[in-house]
Amino acid sequence: MASGSVSEIIGGADSGGGIPVADDDSRAGLAGGGGVSNSDHWLSNLDVGNFIFGIFAVSKVSFVTFMWFIYYLAGTKISGYYWATWFSATLTVYIAWGPVATTWLLIYTGRLWA
Predict the structure, then answer these.
(1) Cα–Cα distance measured from residue 90 to residue 113, given in angstroms and rounded to the nearest whole number
(2) Helices first, then strands: H and E counts in the chain
(3) Percent of the chain with pLDDT over 70
(4) Is 47 within 8 Å of 38 (Cβ atoms)?
(5) Which of 2, 17, 43, 71 is the most exposed place for a label (fewest CB within 10 A)?
(6) Count of CB atoms within 10 A of residue 45's CB?
(7) Contact (Cβ atoms closer than 8 angstroms) between residue 60 and residue 66
(8) What average pLDDT score do residues 22-27 get?
(9) For residue 104, which of 59, 66, 57 has the smallest C-alpha distance?
(10) Are 67 and 87 in contact (CB under 8 A)?
(11) Which burial class, exposed, middle or buried, applies to 47 when counting CB atoms under 10 A from its CB (0-12, 13-18, 19+)?
């Protein structure tokens, strides 16, 4: 027993026993992924990925802009803790997602200098 490895004790790595072995092309088959390579995946298309990321950023900035400036009338309809919460949320979204949304809009509209 001391000379056998763990894989031999369980059922063997090469005999189709208890430990599956991945091929050289894909390790996704071990988890039941079907062996989809990265080149076949839709997120490997950078234009589609950038488009989704840009839409997400513009949506977040648009939503927080609507809520703060239109629904809450620039914070005048709320007070106290809720005002601080919405103000900090607005600043956070503007700081984190504002540059992404602005850049994506400039590039998507075809500005050459962007």
Answers:
(1) 29
(2) 3, 0
(3) 61
(4) no
(5) 2
(6) 11
(7) no
(8) 56
(9) 57
(10) no
(11) exposed
